[in-house]
Design goal:
Elements (H helix, E strand, L loop, with lengths): L1 H19 L33 E5 L4 E4 L2 H10 L4 E7 L6 E3 L4 E4 L11 E4 L2 H10 L3 E3 L1 H7 L1
Antiparallel strand pairs: 1-2, 1-3, 3-4, 5-6, 5-7
């Protein structure tokens, strides 16, 4: 009888651990990126340069990851997927910022993973400075979409 109790306890513990991860992903925060392993949802290239990475949380509780802001924009233009929230990497710092709060820069001199030449910053001042340093210009998300 004692062996049966031990087995029952072990089964209960294993069942608890197995279902602990079933609560779903936290779609209010950017996903964990595995640089050098994750692939872009648009072009399927490996995401290697974190300065230009992007991510989106979809209504069907998935994360989409992108290697270039241009890939993210191209996917948004062609896809009917409903995006709940999206993030871009701040090119001037090691942080994620919401796409809605980001300020975008376009420069043909910027070497980005897929060659679109887009970068994001957190403020208008940083975007203006980044654009000046890279012979580019500050643009809106709508302008960015029209350039893709």
């Amino acid at each position: 009888m004692r062996g049966l109790k031990n087995w029952a306890f072990l089964a209960l513990c294993l069942g608890s651990f197995a279902t602990a991860g079933c609560g779903g992903q936290d779609l209010t925060k950017p996903p964990k990126m595995f640089y050098g392993r994750d692939g872009c949802a648009q072009c399927r290239m490996i995401i290697a340069d974190e300065r230009f990475a992007c991510a989106a949380a979809t209504a069907d509780r998935r994360f989409l990851k992108f290697d270039d802001i241009g890939c993210f924009a191209a996917h948004e233009k062609k896809s009917a997927e409903h995006v709940l929230r999206s993030w871009v990497r701040n090119a001037g710092a090691d942080e994620w910022i919401g796409k809605e709060e980001a300020r975008f820069v376009h420069s043909p001199n910027l070497v980005t993973p897929m060659g679109y030449g887009f970068a994001a910053t957190a403020t208008v001042d940083k975007a203006a400075r980044f654009a000046e340093e890279n012979a580019g210009r500050v643009i809106t998300w709508e302008e960015l979409l029209s350039l893709v």
